[in-house]
Amino acid sequence: MSNVSRIMPCSVNLLSVGTKNEKEAMTATAMFISEDPPLFVVSVQKHILAHEFIEKTGQFVLNIASTEQVKLAKQLGVTKPKAVDKFKEYAVATERAVVVEPPVIRGSFASIECKVITSFPAGNFTVYVAEAVNYKVNEKAKPIIWCQNRYYALGEEET
Known about the structure:
mainly beta; 7-stranded antiparallel beta sheet; 3-stranded antiparallel beta sheet
């Protein structure tokens, strides 16, 4: 049953968290649960640094990965010791977010700045429901999805 989650196509997000002095990133999936207000849900393992930062700040950025970021998505999907600076190790380019503290990851299809409005435990994870407080889209980039442990570029619209 552990592979059942791999059959559902899902978004690929480079979740960035942190403060002005500390930051962390991980690969995550997310989904929207409401358009008005714009609400998103993401789950984060309780034992990792990203969880610690979200608990501390109540903020994160969902950087929707682009076709140029498949390698980075794979790298950030591997759990590393807390002492490892993934931004330096993988040369992750960032810029300041407009509303929240965590950085925006450059090269993403889009970046959605979020503030947590509620959370609840689910096994070894915490599920966060967050409201989008700012966003930007890179119209030149193409987003990717993940399905059956593979990454795919989104293609043409089906009618």
